[in-house]
Amino acid sequence: MWERSSISCIYRKNDSKLEMRIMYKKILVAYDGSEGANKALEAGINLAKIHGAELVALSVQEGLPRFASTIDEVQEEKAYANQHYGKLLEKARARAQEAGVELKTIMRPGHPAKTIVQVAKEGKFDLVLVGHTGLSEVWAAFLGTTAEKVSRHAPCSVLIVR
Question: What is the pTM of this model?
Answer without folding.
Answer: 0.81
